[in-house]
Amino acid sequence: MRRFTEKKLVIATHNAGKLREIAELLAPYGVEVVSAGELGLPEPEETGSTFVENAELKARAAAMAAKLPALADDSGMAVDGLGGLPGIYSARWAGPSKDFGLAMAKVHDALNSQNPGGEADRSARFVCALSLCWPDGEIITFEGVVHGELVWPPRGENGFGYDPMFLPQGSRQTFGEMDADAKHAISHRAEAFRKMVDALFA
Question: Is 198 a catalytic residue?
Answer without folding.
Answer: no
